[in-house]
């Protein structure tokens, strides 16, 4: 009889690793196009898995990068402070540049906050069915996770954040030091009204940091999305995070930022790695902010195509969660793994939701009319296979 393998934590290479890190299951990103092409030998593939802007970067960004590629400064380090970009972001939001912190994507800022405020004996609060990085960041710091139950499936905002339950949880758990709220939320697309968020902030103790993750803020109907910037003056414990990966279409360059009280910004910069934004990323983000016509065009396309795609999915008697983002999360009433596989075989990449505890759902990015048609054409045979 063969002896079983010893538990991995007896391996000398993991013996001194932090327990929280050992518990982590690595984040799995959306499948790249070339991976599916290699795996199945497909030439024609459309990716609707990672909520990227189907219009890509604006022409102004593309021209800026083309010019920078011929620069004589490639041997030089980037501006480690991101002075010009922080000044431009400050002008855009009406906030002092020293209250802006740059990250390698907004994911960077979420990690920074966990490094500062989470740890043993402390807890991080977030909703069930929320962005996977919240849990990963808490575990890496050996912090406890307080997972707030989401709204039930029969609620008008199915699987969305229940901020009354958040407030109740805070009263029960004085060890909570950091709260993550995604608005709109990934992967569900659900959102909270401005008055709900404001009402919650009024109940949060001043020593508890609230990170309002607004990665998909631009895609919301203006009547539904909060203007959280003025709240920073009333709630010094509020941190707002944004990204250039979604509406600005430069996900490959990884630029995000946080708006916060100067004290929080100072702490964020203490843990921020030097030169965490490369020179191309800084230039592209500046150019992206200057091209708000591209932003408006992207929003208009998404609003139109999201409504159209939702209608056509509901015509197929599928469950579609409420969404104010650039994706829809679709329920099939059964385990969706075979449907996901069927879509892959037909050259369409979407995101399975089993890792989020929603095995009956797939998440699909809202693309162009042609991309959405391609998805629907592949979906019908994938469901019936």
What does this structure look like?
- The chain has helices spanning 19-23, 33-40, 59-68, 83-93, 106-117, 132-140, 163-172, 194-201, 231-234, 262-271, 279-290, 292-315, 337-345, 369-384, and strands at 46-47, 100-103, 123-127, 144-148, 176-182, 209-213, 238-243, 256-259, 319-320, 327-331, 348-349, 351-352, 361-365.
- With 385 residues, it is of the alpha/beta class.
- The strands form three sheets. Strands 2-8-7-6-5-3-4 form a seven-stranded mixed sheet, with helices on both faces.
- A hairpin with a 6-residue loop joins strand 9 and strand 10.
- Helix 3 (59-68) packs antiparallel against helix 11.
- The model is unreliable at 1-7 (pLDDT under 50).
């Amino acid at each position: 009889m063969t002896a079983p393998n010893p538990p991995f934590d007896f391996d000398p290479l993991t013996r001194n690793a932090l327990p929280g890190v050992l518990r982590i299951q690595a984040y799995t990103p959306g499948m790249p196009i070339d991976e599916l092409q290699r795996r199945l030998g497909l030439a024609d593939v459309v990716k609707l898995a990672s909520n990227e802007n189907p219009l890509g970067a604006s022409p102004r960004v593309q021209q800026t990068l083309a010019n920078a590629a011929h620069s004589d400064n490639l041997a030089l380090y980037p501006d480690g402070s991101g002075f010009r970009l922080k000044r431009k972001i400050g002008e855009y939001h009406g906030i002092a540049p020293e209250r802006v912190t740059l990250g390698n994507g907004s994911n960077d800022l979420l990690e920074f906050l966990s490094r500062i405020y989470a740890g043993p004996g402390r807890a991080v609060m977030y909703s069930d069915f929320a962005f996977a990085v919240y849990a990963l960041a808490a575990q890496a710091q050996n912090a406890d996770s307080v997972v707030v139950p989401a709204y039930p499936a029969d609620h008008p905002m199915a699987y969305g954040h229940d901020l009354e339950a958040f407030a109740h949880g805070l009263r029960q758990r004085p060890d909570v030091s950091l709260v993550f709220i995604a608005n709109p939320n990934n992967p569900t697309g659900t959102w909270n009204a401005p008055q709900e968020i404001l009402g919650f902030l009024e109940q949060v103790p001043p020593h508890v940091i609230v990170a309002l993750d607004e990665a998909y803020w631009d895609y919301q109907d203006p009547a539904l999305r909060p203007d959280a910037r003025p709240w920073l003056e009333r709630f010094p414990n509020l941190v707002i995070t944004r990204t250039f990966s979604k509406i600005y279409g430069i996900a490959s360059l990884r630029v995000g930022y946080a708006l916060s009280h100067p004290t929080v910004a100072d702490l964020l910069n203490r843990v921020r790695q030097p030169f965490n934004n490369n020179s191309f990323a800084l230039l592209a983000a500046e150019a992206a902010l200057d091209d708000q016509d591209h932003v408006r065009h992207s929003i208009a396309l998404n609003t139109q195509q999201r409504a159209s795609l939702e209608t056509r999915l509901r015509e197929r008697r599928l469950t579609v969660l409420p969404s104010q983002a650039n994706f829809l999360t679709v329920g099939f009433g059964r385990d969706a793994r075979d449907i996901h596989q069927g879509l892959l075989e037909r050259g369409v990449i979407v995101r399975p939701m089993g890792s989020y505890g929603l095995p009956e759902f797939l998440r699909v990015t809202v693309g162009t009319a042609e991309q959405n048609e391609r998805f629907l054409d592949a979906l019908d045979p994938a469901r019936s296979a």
